[in-house]
From TrEMBL:
Binds 2 Mg(2+) ion per subunit. Mg(2+) 1 binds at D8, D140. It comes from Bombella saccharophila. Its main location: cytoplasm. Belongs to the RuvC family. Homodimer which binds Holliday junction (HJ) DNA. The HJ becomes 2-fold symmetrical on binding to RuvC with unstacked arms; it has a different conformation from HJ DNA in complex with RuvA. In the full resolvosome a probable DNA-RuvA(4)-RuvB(12)-RuvC(2) complex forms which resolves the HJ. The RuvA-RuvB-RuvC complex processes Holliday junction (HJ) DNA during genetic recombination and DNA repair. Endonuclease that resolves HJ intermediates. Cleaves cruciform DNA by making single-stranded nicks across the HJ at symmetrical positions within the homologous arms, yielding a 5'-phosphate and a 3'-hydroxyl group; requires a central core of homology in the junction. The consensus cleavage sequence is 5'-(A/T)TT(C/G)-3'. Cleavage occurs on the 3'-side of the TT dinucleotide at the point of strand exchange. This is Crossover junction endodeoxyribonuclease RuvC. Pfam families: RuvC. Keywords: Cytoplasm, DNA damage, DNA recombination, DNA repair, DNA-binding, Endonuclease, Hydrolase, Magnesium, Metal-binding, Nuclease. The gene is ruvC. It is found in: Cytoplasm. The keyword DNA repair applies. It comes from the Bacteria.
Amino acid sequence: MIRLIGIDPGLRFMGWGVVDVEGNRLRHVADGVLATQSGDDVPRRLCDLHEGLMTLIRRYQPSEAAVEETYVNRNGSSTLKLGYARGVALLVPALAGLSVHEYGAMAVKRAVVGTGAATKEQVSMMVRRLLPGAEIKRADASDALAIAICHAHHRASAQHVAMGVRMA
């Protein structure tokens, strides 16, 4: 069994989700959102995200992390701030000794729903279906679980390739 944490970066809300993977079975462990105060300055908010992620990694002790790659917004300032949060999302698991993997939004949607053009609602519905019993309260947490599921699928495929297993 291996434990994965998926992280959906955001400066205001950073989604996270933890799943256990055994073979091709997925089990929901926990999910949630790290929220920062929009009135705080950016360095304080980044510290809050750092502390929150460190606490989650200590509590759930994942073996690997998966982080969503960000896209460029039209608003340069928003893109830059999102990049700061993404930096924290990449740095914290790396500092904890985890291998960190990155996936674009379309790859996550393809892995979970089967099409890169899936809507957020379709992704959320499939996450709930793949992880029975998960009571996801925010879309950011659902997205983070989808990232973890995506990594679980990619990880399994890479293992099959490494072992020389031919897929039908």
